[in-house]
Design goal:
By secondary structure, the protein is mainly α. Helix content is 70%, strand content 3%. The protein has a three-stranded antiparallel β-sheet. A hairpin with a 5-residue loop joins β2 and β3. α1 crosses α3 and α9 packs across α11. The longest helix has 25 residues.
């Protein structure tokens, strides 16, 4: 068991815990008990405590005095601010990618887009009756949509040829981003789904044509519109949650 709370160990633990939050293994509201995490990561409680403090500083978890850390859900304001920043950062990434993207990356981007379209069709219900008989079919389709969407955006961010920018975008979209996206997937209608495809096509076409300004504008518009939709679908004005939990006030509403 590792007991020394070195900066490197603390950073590694914070990243590993955050990765599990991003992956949905620790959804919003989950209590992160130090003793359980210490056992899971084979370390003492001291570096776990420091790692959780780092995640609290990033707004990913909250810690009340003498209580376990809790994975936070974002407020509507936090979602809005995150998407505003993300739009500018990813817009810059798309602008740079239009210059630096390789032919192979364009091929990869087209493949990921085609897979995204297929995932969208599954979300829309274009599946055989046998597949839809599985009670988890929608959640599985939503997860594929999220994965393919992430792959599409990551390819562009990597193609920007700016590693610092790519890391910054990852920091902005980490933490509760996955749970927010899953909530929005459950509220998507056919118009929104088709709009997603059209926006990705515009971004891809601008990159294929290697037009930086057009690529940036298409990406900014796409991310900002996505943010507006997420806010609308996660929290209605009356504070009702539109995700998997039926009824009741949702955590983001309570945090406003």
């Amino acid at each position: 068991m590792k007991t020394a709370a070195s900066p490197k160990l603390i950073e590694d633990l914070a990243n590993r815990i955050q990765a599990k939050i991003v992956a949905g293994e620790y959804p919003p509201g989950t209590r992160l008990k130090q003793e359980v995490l210490a056992q899971q990561f084979d370390v003492s409680r001291t570096p776990i405590r420091e790692a959780l403090s780092r995640l609290e500083a990033k707004g990913i978890v909250s810690q009340a005095q003498r209580r376990s850390a809790v994975v936070r859900a974002p407020s509507s304001r936090e979602i809005s601010e995150m998407y505003q920043v993300r739009a500018e950062l990813e817009g810059l990434a798309a602008q740079l990618a239009a210059r630096w993207i390789t032919d192979q990356q364009l091929v990869d981007l087209r493949i990921s887009h085609d897979e995204f379209v297929q995932a969208v069709k599954e979300l829309r219900g274009d599946r055989d009756s046998t597949s839809r008989a599985d009670p988890k079919w929608f959640e599985q389709a939503a997860q594929r949509w999220i994965d393919m969407n992430a792959k599409f955006h990551k390819t562009i961010n990597d193609a920007s040829n700016n590693r610092y920018l790519a890391r910054t975008i990852l920091d902005v979209t980490s933490g509760y981003a996955r749970s927010v996206m899953l909530s929005s997937a459950f509220g998507m209608n056919s118009f929104r789904i088709e709009s997603n495809i059209v926006q990705h096509e515009r971004i891809l076409k601008a990159l294929e044509d290697r037009e930086p300004a057009r690529a940036r504008r298409a990406m900014v518009d796409h991310v900002l519109e996505s943010g507006e939709f997420v806010i609308a679908i996660v929290c209605e004005p009356n504070g009702r949650h539109l995700s998997r939990r039926p009824g009741g006030r949702c955590t983001p509403c309570l945090q406003r």
